[in-house]
Amino acid sequence: VGTAADTLAALTVGTNGHTLVADSSTSTGLKWAAASSGAMTLIASDTLLSAAATITFDNIPGTYNHLLILWACKGNGDWMRIFFNNVTTSTYYSQMVYGRQTTASAENLTASGSGRLGWAANEAASGQVVIPQYKATSLKKSWSSHWSGTESTASNGTRTGTAGGRNDATTAITRIDITADSNYEAGSAFYLYGVI
After folding, report:
1. Burial label, 116 (beta-carbon count in 10 A; 0-12, 13-18, 19+)
2. Which of 108, 124, 130, 163 has the lowest CB atom count within 10 Å?
3. In this structure, is the dihedral angle defined by the CA atoms of residues 189, 53, 117 and 177, taken in order, positive or negative?
4. 14/67 Cα distance (integer angstroms)
5. pLDDT at 21
6. Residue whose C-alpha is closest to residue 73's, from 26, 139, 129, 32
């Protein structure tokens, strides 16, 4: 590290998960510190090389407070669903509200094997889902998503919506599966972030 006096000073490697921050009380003017609240770290990503019906994020570390998944995908006009820890029993409850052109719709799923998440349109779709307190073992797991997608036919047009729900399990989440009713096409990309 170069100092203001044009002198080189060694700054040793910091602790994993720490970030470099300014600190005028140190000889280099820098120090390693724990990441501040709200910081995001990319845990994993998956860009499909060929069509697939499911995206899986496995071995999710329990070192964050919340999870965020972003996606940009293309499908067959399919509904997207989410489930945790490879559990597909009837323990998911979700609600979805969306608009298509000038029509608003709502759907409610109770005691389902997965939860509503979004829509994988056949032209382009994007969205995000937040999973708060994913590692807490005293809380049922919940999620909320916002998404938008465009279809190639004028009759379907663009849909934009929001979805949310819960799973009755209180187990810490270590695996997330995001499925489509048929397939996500090659080039679809999904990103999993940990939020402190």
Report:
1. buried
2. 108
3. negative
4. 24
5. 75
6. 129
